[in-house]
Design a protein that fits this description.
Length: 322
């Protein structure tokens, strides 16, 4: 969360935007801004730095002016870097006439545009619902007309998710909506036939694709005829990520795909694995163990029933003989 933004020239504020009442002494913040103004003069121009103070952090960028963002520790560095650079671009356009509305527009704007494309009925909308934490549909509900657009937050990063209609009649409109795409996820249903058609479809769009990163989502990995992610990656020539979008257990995995893609696109190192990440992996393993145990119990139950039936049959035969 961002609490405040300052644009200063020689230590004098040009504009100040406060989003939440400061939880630390304003005099202390004033002192920090003064210190940053002095410290920033010793930092290489255009280099972004962060300073932590009382469970909050100041991120700043020095160019012709000093731009400072005051935020919580949970707001990712890539987000602050994007906002700082956009603020400077806007200041370069408008100078001292920059307004609070200009700053608000930048803070509220998603940092990346993510599109999901693929043929109809491969699971694009189901993936979108999975990401949003909504109940996934039990029957196929086609997306029609224009793409569905959702603005979401993933670990403090605001994203716009575009879900493209996959029917052939809508595919001609894709080039228009692909403009300014940062990350493209190409979704297949993991069958050989669909993977080959998806590869051909992607090649037909080649001249219109300007995404900074492209990944394949190998959905419906639970199908008997599903190809492995490695096989699909070999066919497509693009990094491939497996999913079963109808399974809620895959939500943290897909969110991790998004997070990693964003960090790659913005040019930052991915966060090291956290306790939450490890817990997710352990929970997934435990879920599979429970699933196997349930299957074994069902098999054991069935075997017991068969043995009892067989013994009953033998007993009946013995009684007839006597």
């Amino acid at each position: 969360m961002i609490f405040g933004i300052w644009i200063l020239r020689s230590g004098v504020p040009i504009i100040v935007r406060i989003y939440e009442k400061m939880k630390v002494d304003e005099i202390m913040i004033g002192g920090m801004l003064e210190a940053l103004s002095t410290f920033a003069s010793e930092v290489a121009s255009e280099e972004i730095r962060e300073v932590v103070m009382k469970n909050r952090k100041f991120a700043f960028l020095r160019k012709d002016v000093l731009i400072v963002i005051y935020a919580d520790l949970e707001t990712p560095t890539p987000v602050l870097n994007v906002i700082l650079n956009k603020l400077h671009q806007k200041f370069a356009e408008k100078g001292d006439a920059i307004s609070e509305r200009d700053i608000d527009d930048i803070v509220e704007e998603p940092i990346v545009k993510i599109v999901f494309i693929g043929e109809a009925n491969v699971g694009k909308s189901t993936l979108r619902k999975l990401i949003l934490g909504e109940e996934t549909p039990k029957v196929y509900q086609p997306t029609i007309s224009a793409p569905r657009i959702e603005i979401i937050n993933v670990k403090g990063m605001k994203l716009s998710i575009w879900d493209f209609p996959g029917q052939e009649m809508y595919q001609k409109s894709w080039p228009f909506f692909l403009r300014s795409t940062d990350i493209m996820f190409v979704v297949t249903d993991s069958t050989l036939d669909n993977v080959l058609r998806t590869k051909k479809l992607l090649e037909s769009l080649k001249e219109h694709i300007n995404a900074k990163a492209i990944y394949v989502i190998a959905n419906k990995q639970d199908l008997l005829e599903a190809l492995s992610p490695d096989t699909i990656e070999e066919i497509m020539g693009i990094k491939t990520l497996p999913t079963i979008a109808i399974d809620p257990a895959y939500r943290p995995i897909v969110l991790k795909y998004l997070e990693n893609a964003i960090y790659d696109v913005l040019g930052f190192k991915r966060p090291t694995e956290t306790i939450d990440d490890i817990s997710i992996r352990i929970a997934k393993i435990e879920e599979k163990i429970n699933e196997i145990e349930n299957r074994l119990q069902n098999i054991e139950k069935r075997l017991t029933e068969l043995i009892m039936a067989k013994n009953k049959e033998k007993a009946s035969e013995l009684l007839k003989e006597q």
